[in-house]
Every structure is written in structure tokens, then in C-alpha cells.
Amino acid sequence: MTDRLMSKAATMEIPIHGNGDSRRLPEDDGLEQDLQQVMVSGPNLNETSIVSGGYGGTAEGIIPTSSIKDSLLSSHPPHGPLISPSPSAASRIASQAAAAGSNLHQPHPNSAMTGEEAARGVAVEKFDIVKKWGINTYKCTKQLLSERFGRGSRTVDLELEAQIELLRDTKRKYECVLGLARALTSHFYSLVQTQHALADAFSDLSQKSPELQEEFGYNAETQKLLCKNGETLLGAVNFFVSSINTLVNKTMEDTLMTVKHYETARLEYDAYRTDLEELSLGPRDAGTLCRLDAAQANFQAHRVKYEKLRADVAVKLKFLEENKVKVMHKQLLLFHNAISAYFAGNQQQLEQTLKQFSIKLKSPGADKPSWLEEQ
């Protein structure tokens, strides 16, 4: 650029008119200023810029030409002298670049509005859910406190309530039996382990005491037989404990969970019934009629829910009673026969009891994998 300016300045002719005065055009003034700047401070290509509106314009619309020059040089290497654009062309380039940049970064209005509407819809839906939950909780709490202090009425099914209370009492007693059976299993397991250790001690002493070999020998055999019978009895008692645990903590607990849902539905039903009765006794204006219609609809919905859960509880209580009788009949017979055969010393009867109830005992090394599985 410096060479171009110098060559242009050397060949430039200044026109002289008839009056002897030389008149400078604006382009010549700008060229002379550029030459003076180059001669004083030297060329500074990195700060060269294109000014919109001529050399004497404002600072608005200034675009650095270093980025434009670099992109042009990288894509099309120069093969000849570079030609600088005119001020009007530079102004058009600057305005087109600014318009393109503004259009590039402007978001689409439709997509923004769609996102805002979706977010607003989700927020409104969540607010409605929280509002309904708050109203329902307030009404149920008010009804519960009224019942506790004897000021409100509650719906009672005497027959169903008696069956529910009987189930809860039965569950507490069965839990007590389950705890005692587990304690018996734990203590009897310790007894079997002690007998096993005692049999090993008698066998060792029978080999090291020739004068008492016979006495130690038959005592060792007796303890080994007791250990074997004790392990068989442990299998029967463990089966008994497992069956009682399933009955108490799964079958009965499932029925009681349905009972809890039924009691919650009963409380909601009474709460909305009380609300409907209070609105029915009030004045009949336009606002009260609308509220009365809404209360009537809520009351009917909770009434249907309450009646459905009441029927479910009645059915589950019936099936639970039948299942309980069947399971306990089998388990009590097993427990009686196994205990009687063990303490009577009837090994054959004890083994027959386990076969009768399809109980399989695990061998001492059953849980340990074979040497082929370990490879």
C-alpha cells in the first residue's frame, strides 16, 4: 500500500487554472493526509480501516480491514496489485455486513412463543395440582379434628370395622408367634452345634483313652444321632417360620394396606359430605349455587371411590381368612409331628414328616460350589 501511495504521489499532477491558483479536490486532500501519515509514522497495516461516509465522517460504521484482508489472502492469494475500494463501495459493504449479522443472530419469533406457551402451560398445570391437594388436605384435616373432638359425624360400617379390628389383633398375635418360633430356631441351632462339638470331643477321647474307649464311643454315636435328628427338626421349624412370615408380613400386610386406603377414602368422603351439608344450609345466591354444584360433584366422586374400596376390603378380608386357615392347618400339623417325632427319638417318623410336607434339607456342603464350578 505504501508503494502504491508513493507512486501515485510521484505521478500526480496538480491542475493550475487561469488565475494562477491551485484548487484541491477532497480526494486530493485525503491522499495528501495519508502520505503525511505514512512519511511520519510509517505504514500500520493492522490499524487500517474503511470509514463509511468519507474521510471526514464520524466514527460510526468503522470496520477493521485486517479480518477482510486475511480472509481474502487465505482463500485467493494475490497475483497482481491490490485495488482499494472507493468510500461509497466501502459504505455499501459495511451496511450489508451489519444487516447480515443482525439477521443471523435474530431468533425466530414463532419458536420462542411456542416455548413460552409450553412452559406457561406446565406451570399452570402444576399450580392446579398443588391447589387441589391443598384444598383436599385442608378439608380432611378439618374433618379429622372434628371427629377427634366429637364435633363431627363419621360414616361407620360396623361389620367391616369389626373384621378390620379382628385382623389387626390377629396380626399382632401372629407376630408374637413368629418371634417365638425364630427364637426357638436360634436356640435349637446352638444346641445342635454344641452336640456336634461334643460328639467330636467324645470321638477324640475314645481313641486316646483305651480304658474308656467303649464308653466314649457310644456317647459319641448318640450325640451324632441327635445332631442328625436336630438338623432334620431345624429344617421343619425353618419351613414353619418361613410360612408364618409370608402370611404375616406379606398377605396380612397387603390387606391392611388396602384398609389404609379405605380409611383415607372414608375420611375424604365424610369431609366432602360435611362441606356439601354446610353449603346446603347457606343462602342460595348465584355464587353459592355454583359452589353447591361443584361440591355435589366432588361428593359423588369421593362416594364412588369410598364404596369401591369398601368392597375391595370386604373381598380381601374374606380371601385372607380362607388362606389363613389353610396355611395354618398345614403348618401347625407339621410343627406338631416334627416336634413329637424328635423328642420321641423316632428318626423314621421325623423323616417321614418332612417327606409328607415336601421339605428338602440342604446338605452341609450344598451352598459351596464344586471344584469344577470354581475353575
From TrEMBL:
SUPFAM superfamilies, per the entry: BAR/IMD domain-like
Localization of this protein: Golgi apparatus membrane; Golgi apparatus, trans-Golgi network
Start and end residues of each stretch annotated as Disordered: 69-117
UniProt KW Membrane keyword: yes
Keywords of this entry: Golgi apparatus, Membrane, Phosphoprotein
InterPro entries xref list: AH/BAR_dom_sf, AH_dom, Arfaptin_fam
Entry annotated with the keyword Phosphoprotein: yes
Domain spans labelled AH: 155-355
GO function term, MF aspect, one: phosphatidylinositol-4-phosphate binding
Biased composition (Low complexity): 85-102
UniProt feature, compositional bias: Polar residues: 103-113
A Pfam family reported for this protein in Swiss-Prot or TrEMBL: Arfaptin
Superkingdom to which the source organism belongs: Eukaryota
Protein name: Arfaptin-2 isoform X3
Organism whose genome encodes this protein: Eublepharis macularius (Leopard gecko)
